[in-house]
Inverse folding.
């Protein structure tokens, strides 16, 4: 449902005749640590933690952290096996996402 911006729920909404859709594009600079802290709050992660346990979620997030660091090293033309003392909080990237609003007026 998220991928199609909840379009399948639109027929269930009241006041369809006044329905207006707005999409707000968001861009936010983030560090790897901030991004992972955000991802950990997502309901999918919380569901995974409830089903598989906290250790499994931590392992999954650590795997994601390693992949993000690998991407950073690749884009910086660095040797992946080279000792790197880069502080994760100094690695910044931009996260882009959209927020869809459905506004209606009672008539």
């Amino acid at each position: 449902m998220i991928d199609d911006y909840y379009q399948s729920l639109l027929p269930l909404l009241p006041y369809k005749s006044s329905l207006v859709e707005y999409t707000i594009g968001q861009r936010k600079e983030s560090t790897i640590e901030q991004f992972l802290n955000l991802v950990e709050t997502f309901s999918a992660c919380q569901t995974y933690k409830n089903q598989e346990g906290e250790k499994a979620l931590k392992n999954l997030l650590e795997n994601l952290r390693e992949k993000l660091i690998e991407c950073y090293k690749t884009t910086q033309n660095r040797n992946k096996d080279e000792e790197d003392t880069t502080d994760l909080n100094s690695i910044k990237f931009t996260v882009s996402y959209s927020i869809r609003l459905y506004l209606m007026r009672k008539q």
